[in-house]
Model the fold of this input.
Amino acid sequence: MPDPSRFERGALDPSALDLSALDFTAIDFETANPSAASACSVGLAKVRGGKVVDREGWLILPPEGHDHFTEWNTRIHGLRAADCASAPRWIDQLPRLLEYIEGDALTAHNAGFDMGVIKAACEASMTPIPAFDYLCSLQVARKTYELESYRLPKAAAAAGFDDFPHHDALADAEACAWIIIDAAKRHRAATLTELGARAGARISHLAPVAA
Done:
């Protein structure tokens, strides 16, 4: 559990900390089926200076062989094969994804899942895996809040972002961004790297691998 003494009075006051260097992109994927390669939607929230300044999301047609939709996954996010039939394949939307991220470090809630989607979808598409540094907001939340559950809706509510459509990729990405911003204030961390160090949540790396 987090040490309450870390969170000094006034730590949440926006004027108490310079967040001008807190830049990152939060990301969230939904998948069509249990395959990690089956990305069917992505949500992105861009943070500059500790504020969400832009949000974008789109549908994806998963790579061939991974593009069937299971009833279970549709029940989670509401997307069906017909919704993504005219969307670009993973390999065709990847340049747009990389352009939006602009080389930022990424954050995601349970980041191993989302980084696994990038890796698996690139492998299934026989295209090189891009390199990203990333920080998991689930790990950060566990070191920041005292909650019964650290699922995204609960952690985001603790950060002041609640009542959003969970499993909508765009809303989930913004919820993740809010957790990181709030945690940075609570830990008095001016950058994503500093937050990782102060919260004991390691900055990880998705390494590029040639197809």
